[in-house]
């Protein structure tokens, strides 16, 4: 049986628009916070390595080039994983957090 994902109202998922190119990086090859993103740093999905294809989210505690994923890429990743990897990031070990919004 799958482990439920913790839903929280207090910690929304960070998002980034997909208009930036993955080929550019900051000097240290790491994006440390959203101020860096606004200053011209670029990001891409750590799973598909693309920046096109949807909104990028930050569902765990990873930083730098591992921070962002497309929601659909993460959903696919989770669909083929079981146990710990279904509900937790295998890099930073944090439980995935998703903000549920009532429309």
Automatic annotation (TrEMBL):
Keyword Zinc included in the entry's annotation: yes
Domain RING-CH-type, first and last residues per copy: 37-99
Annotated GO MF terms: zinc ion binding
Entry keywords, A to Z: Metal-binding, Zinc, Zinc-finger
Gene3D superfamilies with a match to the protein in the record: Zinc/RING finger domain, C3HC4 (zinc finger) (3.30.40.10)
Pfam families: RINGv
InterPro entries reported in the protein's UniProt record: Znf_RING-CH (IPR011016), Znf_RING/FYVE/PHD (IPR013083)
Domain of life: Eukaryota
Name of the protein in question: RING-CH-type domain-containing protein
């Amino acid at each position: 049986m799958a482990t439920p994902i913790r839903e929280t109202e207090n910690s929304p998922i960070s998002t980034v628009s997909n208009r930036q190119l993955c080929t550019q990086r900051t000097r240290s090859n790491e994006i440390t916070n959203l101020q860096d993103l606004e200053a011209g740093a670029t990001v891409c999905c750590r799973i598909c390595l693309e920046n096109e294809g949807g909104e990028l989210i930050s569902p765990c505690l990873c930083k730098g080039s591992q921070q962002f994923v497309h929601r659909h890429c993460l959903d696919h990743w989770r669909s083929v994983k079981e146990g710990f990897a279904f509900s937790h990031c295998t890099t930073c070990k944090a439980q995935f957090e998703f903000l549920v919004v009532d429309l």
